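Hi all, long-time lurker, first post. I run a small reading group and we've been trying to get comfortable going from sequence to structure in the token notation. Rather than ask abstract questions, I figured I'd post a concrete chain and ask someone more experienced to write out its structure so we can walk through it together at our next meeting. Sequence below, copied exactly:
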Amino acid sequence: MSDVTVRQLAKDVGIAEDRLLSQLKDAGVMKNDADDLISVDEKAQLLGHLRESHGKKDDDSTAGGPRKITLKRKTVSELQQPAAGGRGPGGRGTARVVGKTVSVEVRRKRTYVKRGSASEDEKTLQDAEAARKALDEQATKRQQIAAEDQARRDAEEALRRAELDKSKEEENKRLAEEARLREEEEQQRQAEREVARLLEAQERTEHEPLEGGKHKPEAEEQVAVPIEPEVTPLPEVEERPAKRAAHKKETRTHAVRARSDDEGDSRKKLHVSAEKRGRRKGKAGRGKAGAAQGDSQHGFVKPTAPVVREVVVPESITAAELASQMSIKAAAVIRELMKMGMMVTINQPLDHDTATLVVEELGHVPVTKKDDSIEAQVMSSLDEVQGELVHRAPVVTIMGHVDHGKTSLLDYIRSSRVAAGEAGGITQHIGAYHVETNRGMISFLDTPGHAAFSAMRARGAKVTDIVVLVVAADDGAKPQTVEAIQHSKAAGVPMIIAINKMDKPEANPDRVKQELTQHEVIPEDWGGDTQFIEVSAKTGDGIDSLLDAILLQAEVLELTAVADGAARGIVVESSLDKGRGPVATVLVQSGNLKKGDMLVCGQEFGRVRALLDENRQPIESAGPSIPVEVLGLSGVPNAGDEVIAVADERKARELAAVRQETNRDNRLAAQKAAKLDEFFSKMTEGNVGVINLIIKADVQGSVEALRESLLKLSTDEVKVKVVASAVGGINETDINLAATSDAFVIGFNVRADAAARRMAEDRGLDIRYYSIIYEVIDDVKKALSGLLSPEVREEIIGLAEVRDVFRSSKLGAIAGCLVIEGAVKRNSPIRVLRENVVIYEGVLESLRRLKDDVSEVKAGTECGIGVKNYNDVKPGDQIEVFERTEIARHL
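-- Answer (accepted) --
Happy to help. Here is the structure in token form:
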């Protein structure tokens, strides 16, 4: 059925029903309801109305039909072709033959075109003609613009040529003027030279009668004498008229100036020998004057420009030596250093960078002194590759927050009990171990997690290949965890996160991952590049996965080292053993360290007497990535010092001596600078409470941690000063130093010998022994808190209002008061307020109630108050009574 309702048609067309009803009404189709039916004719009527309303003609209503009609017609007809007549064979009569029939098909085609199509073709032609005209106009405009540009360029070229011609003409005029001026100057010079020559000839003629037959050569030798204008007059000719002498002097001066302009300084620099100058017969006075004039001249000429020197700057140089190389006074160098904020003395050594800055500031060129010492020779020989590179085991550093299970995790891998031997259950040393597993060998470094051991963690991150960051699943990321991440990123070392304590019921590994993402540590399963392994140091779950992750990371890094040749390594930890002497834990990085090798460790040297592994078992040699204990050094090296093996004992001794001397110079320079800075700070700050300490510990790392932690406790009011710090037991030297500097002695995991204890008792010195770093810090904090001045607080306890003032012959002015707040107590400090402004502060002299002396008057009671040494109390004033209390301060 082709009829549809108004609602259905509106839905199909996509318009509102009301709008469709209004359009039907305008088209002449009366429909009142949305359910009325619309026929096909009504639809066509509506469509025609809409076309007319949009500007289309009636004949356009059939726009859907074809605009061009082609008619084809085909007619078919037959054409009979008659047959030709003739006789048959045998002379018989002609026979009748039937003709051919040909079918003819005629096809006709006629095309009828509507007028609308014709008009569209005409419109298309008109558009094409208009486009062609527009293109022609654009081409004409482009030609006009090109012609204008060419004309402008021609005008600019003509202007430029005119300016060039004008400038050439001006240049020619200027050159001609200069040539004319030069010619005039030359003529003037020639005239002046002629006048000078005539005057000189006249002067020689005048002097000839005085010389008494002097030969001509001697006269010619005296030509150079009168070149100076300040020549003293001769005593013999003083009787001549003054006017003539003055004229001769002026003329001679003019002649000398003219000759100096012409001949430069050649005549001025002519010096006549003393025995020939002024030796004229009978004129001794004139000769003496000439000799005195010649002696007054000297060979030094003041430089006209500053002299720039090349100053050789070694690693250390004193201020006096630096000033000597620059040919200036040492005071100038010290002045420049004071401008830079440094207080130095004339003999204080300066480092290379400071000396270079001073030389540049003073306008000279610093030249770095090439190091041709024994150290450069030894290091250059070690830089050469002495063997073939082979694969080595990875060095893994265990890092993390305190009490997160680092040592316990390593214990399970090593199957030992290391944490049980540490004081307080926390690690306070760097431990170095190597473990043989089924998948290969791994060397481990266990670092402390306490906040005081930041230097140890930084040192462990620098010597390692891989960092295993241990985070407790029940505790999350802590400050030392974040610090370990920063050390690893600064050293450029890859990290593996071990989420420990997964055996606890409150373990939450997702929380750990979420917290570490805040520090740019993204797990691999979250799209990052860091491996997260869930382990338990108690049950051993995940240990194999952790070892696999370590070895996989090591394969990616492709770790190699030279297995043979001279050994090189780094000091991980060092200590002083009473029976074995200096002991250094060395991690071999390349080469092969053997028993009997000559080593240089920083400032110390020695021959290896014994090599011990982490279980204190003797071994003969150690290759790359193997930690060993070395015995036989001359002293305790600093943790972090480089270890090198040299072939010659003499070179090792010289290298150590050079390093000791350099370190001594630097230490003295730092001490002098500190003393001067301390002197000036005392001048500005006044008295500051200071606690002097002497620190002795068992290993170098603990000394560093204690020193840094205690120095951080200093404030503006109290300071901690570490007089000395070293590794080893407490001896008599430490006690003497403590007595001299009034210092406390702290022994960390060390004890004092019998002589030191006896000396300390005699001198009344205090020696404190500790094994846990928390206790050291707490005790020093308490001592510093005792040096702090207490905080004084004021508390108002009463307020009285003056109603009247009475005069007493003994006590002066007595204020009759009413206590309105609190209580007024005798001998308490008071303030007198007038219109809420403090006008006097003092103490109560007397307090009476009626005629009796009382110690306290409470609120709502009248009393008489006498203010000590103050009689200007008036009615309406207020007397404020308060108390001062001192409160102890703490750091």
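A couple of things your group might point at:
The longest strand covers residues 791-808.
The CA atoms of residues 22 and 31 lie 9 Å apart.
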